[in-house]
Design brief:
Helix 2 runs parallel beside helix 5. The strands form three sheets. The protein has a four-stranded mixed beta sheet with strand order 1-2-4-3, covered by helices on one side. A four-stranded mixed beta sheet has the order 5-6-10-7, with helices on one face. The chain has a two-stranded antiparallel ribbon with strand order 8-9. The protein has a single domain, classed as 2-Layer Sandwich (Ribosomal Protein S5, domain 2), CATH 3.30.230. The radius of gyration is 19 Å and the shape is globular. By secondary structure, it is of the alpha+beta class. Helix content is 39%, strand content 27%. The longest helix is centred in the last third of the chain and has 20 residues. The structure holds manganese (II) ion (MN).
């Protein structure tokens, strides 16, 4: 039987699906400066396992939530100048994790790209919307009523999200709609990111092998 365009297309799609099934969306990034030394490994198709040590207890708690609820396996080992303050370690952890996610995403073929979630936690509700666009942008509408949660300065959450969005190459909108408890406000931001990220980087079977853009690229 003569082969036509439909058969060729079907074969291309089958090859893409086979390729995707064997393609590992994993990456490791190491970064060393005079302020921090950090290594992060991610597996976008993991099961939410984590091994996180930043030296900042509350940040570890947040990054563990991020792994668990995104189903992305995350390993982070950070050694930073915590004797100064937590700023460099918090920000640089966002940078390195963002770079690892960007590298693991590769050409972004076949992903859902967009996702949003409303994430409740007791008194608190936070909305997170994401576009895995290759174009970094953070909108952060989150305010805290206390300067610290645990030992971590609440002003550092914006720094972390900015660093992550910038280096992952994602458009990220985070808005806390309401809530009183500062621990809950921070935690809903990370869990909201986790759930949105999970859906945005997941395979969309109808996209199989195609970059989800009329431009044909999400390279930024
Ligand atoms: Mn908690």
């Amino acid at each position: 039987m003569a082969r036509g365009p439909a058969q060729d297309m079907a074969q291309d799609m089958t090859q893409d699906i086979v390729k995707r099934a064997t393609l590992k969306r994993q990456a490791t990034i190491s970064r060393k400066t005079k302020e921090t030394e950090i290594t992060a490994t991610v597996d976008l198709d993991g099961s939410g396992q984590f091994d996180v040590t930043t030296g900042i207890g509350f940040l570890d708690h947040m990054l563990e939530q991020l792994a668990r609820h995104s189903m992305i396996d995350i390993t982070i080992k950070a050694a930073g100048d915590l004797h100064i303050d937590f700023h460099h370690t918090a920000e640089d952890t966002g940078i390195v994790l963002g770079q690892a996610v960007a590298k693991a995403l590769g050409d972004k073929k076949g992903i859902a790209r967009y996702a949003d979630v409303h994430l409740p936690m007791d008194d608190t509700l936070t909305r997170v919307a994401i576009d895995v666009s290759g174009r970094p942008y953070l909108v952060w509408k989150v305010e805290f009523s206390k300067p610290k949660v645990g030992e971590m300065d609440t002003e550092l959450f914006r720094e972390w999200f900015q660093a992550f969005a910038q280096n992952a190459g994602i458009t990220l909108h985070v808005e806390n709609l309401y809530g009183e408890n500062n621990h809950h406000i921070a935690e809903t931001c990370y869990k909201g990111l986790a759930r949105a990220l999970r859906r945005a980087v997941e395979a969309d079977s109808r996209q199989a092998g195609r970059v989800p853009s009329t431009k044909g690229t999400l390279a930024g």
